[in-house]
Amino acid sequence: xxxxxDPAAAAAFGAPSTVKGISVGSTTxxxxxxxxxxxxxxxxxxxxxxxxxxxxxxxxxxxxxxxxTSGAVSDMYWGKGIPQGVNGxxxxx
Length: 93
What we know:
The protein is mainly β. The chain has one helix at about 30-35; strands at about 40-45, 50-55, 60-70, 70-80. It has a four-stranded antiparallel β-sheet, with helices on one face.
């Protein structure tokens, strides 16, 4: 799920959320409180600039990844086989 706009405004649209209530627009503090075991990775994405990802490992090779831009979740990825680490937009290469 990717939100194209100010992450803080996403809550007004009733975006889907995790079982712990995290969705696009959630703050960094909310993500770390809901998923204290999440791994944080900060990097400079070649197409989007500096951002942080919180990676939550799940059972059977599943994971959830929360992209945080300017202190709020802007993108969420989940499922099996998602690389646990830096995910960047490669279309700009």
